[in-house]
Amino acid sequence: MIGFYALVGATLAVNTILLAVLAWAYHSPRFAHRRISARPAIKVERAERLRTMAIISTLSLVAVIAPTYFFFDRLFHEAPTPWWTIALQSVGILMLYDFLYYFLHRALHHKKAMRFVHGVHHRARNPSTLESFFQHPIELLLGLGLLFACIVAVGPIHVITFQIVFFVYSNLNIVIHSGLVLPFGGPINFLTKKHHVHHQDDFAKNYASLTPLPDRLFGTAG
To answer: Less Cβ crowding at N or C end of the chain, within 10 Å?
Structure first.
């Protein structure tokens, strides 16, 4: 289990470095031409932003460590597993999550949910990477709870499968909020721009998180 959490820690370290680099790039005049929009990212006092980010960062850590620790044997296994099985498990979990999150995200845009929960995140009308952590605690728990539900549905999964899924899930969530068009970004830039449209211009478009497939299938791509 020590090795498992060492890899989780490595992913969290990558998250931190990525967050710092993208935040620096967003606010650096040197990369101003890379910004999707020149508008202010969010009109919230610095103290409130820092407080919210600290709460969400701490809660996300607990929400990952607690279920993996207390339900490790029910969620994971370490038996020898072909690489293609690990790859299929990883893709299967991420695709299932993407489709289910689409419906969760749409539900969060209901008037009451938007007012009391998801509206916190949408205070960022022109998000930068720091705003990936500006959200209501309930929204964070719903997202991570959905991810673990997908793991249960596919699992028990190999421990390496979880590391791949967690790495993609956490880092992609940071990048798509970057507010930047990255050099050689390719599909990542496509997802970032679509998510930026969702924040800034059209709340009724682009609900999916990891791919454009659910939005295209259900007619909400934009």
So the answer is: N
Query: Domain extents for the chain?
Result: 2-217
41-to-27, 56, 192, 203 alpha-carbon distances in Å:
10, 19, 14, 16
**Looking at residue 37, what DSSP letter applies?**
-
Tens-digit pLDDT profile for residues 1-22: 889 999 999 999 999 999 999 9
Look-up: residue for tokens 């690489």? 83
Residue reference for tokens 């409130």: 48
pTM of the model: 0.92
